[in-house]
Design brief:
The chain has helices at residues 6-10, 12-27, 42-55, 61-66, 71-75, 82-98, 105-120. By secondary structure, the protein is an all-alpha fold. It has a single domain (6-127), classed as Globins (Globin-like), CATH 1.10.490. It is globular, with a radius of gyration of 14 Å. The structure holds protoporphyrin IX containing FE (HEM). Protoporphyrin IX containing FE (HEM) binds next to helix 3, helix 5, helix 6 and helix 7. InterPro entries: GlbO/GLB3-like (IPR044203), Globin-like_sf (IPR009050), Globin/Proto (IPR012292), Hemoglobin_trunc (IPR001486).
Length: 128
């Protein structure tokens, strides 16, 4: 029996880089996300490549450089409302398509990221 990680199944480093690049092109243009992201997304994209590599079962690149992920805690400085959660997920859904991540991995990834994004919300709508 050959059990591969999602990371390997989708095509490893190349696929993660395509996905993250397609994602931040959309974040940079999304009116609900622009206010909380830095203008230069180079560093956040680099960290997201590290994080998603380990999230998909590849080498633990994020942890190696930044320690325990603690993603909710790392997001507390930024007001993440339900609207911003939806915006983040819609950018990701389109990026999964543009990066040609194949089924069933595309759906599995989107479901897992939806759970994580829900966990990242920290601000009710009216304060966003
Ligand atoms: C960092 C927003 C969900 C992974 C950030 C930053 C913002 C942000 C504003 C910081 C940018 C900066 O450095 O100034 C959001 C919003 C989300 C969301 C609005 C909607 C729910 C997620 C999810 C994940 C994730 C679901 C993982 C699957 C990361 C990573 C970083 C980051 C790895 C870099 C952390 C670091 O600096 O160490 N996010 N995020 N985010 N986000 Fe999110």
């Amino acid at each position: 029996e050959n059990i591969r990680s999602i990371y390997e199944a989708i095509g490893g480093e190349d696929a993660v880089h395509r996905l993250v690049d397609a994602f931040y092109i959309r974040v940079a243009k999304h009116p609900d996300l622009i206010p909380i992201f830095p203008e230069d997304l180079t560093e956040v994209a680099r960290k997201q490549k590290q994080f998603l590599t380990q999230f998909f079962g590849g080498p633990p690149l994020f942890q190696a450089e930044h320690g325990h992920p603690m993603m909710r805690r790392r997001h507390l400085p930024f007001p993440i409302t339900p609207t911003r959660r939806d915006a983040w997920l819609s950018c990701m859904e389109e990026a999964l398509e543009e990066a040609e991540i194949e089924e069933p991995f595309r759906s599995v990834i989107f479901e897992r990221l939806t759970l994580t994004a829900n966990h990242m919300m920290n601000t009710p709508e009216e304060k966003g």
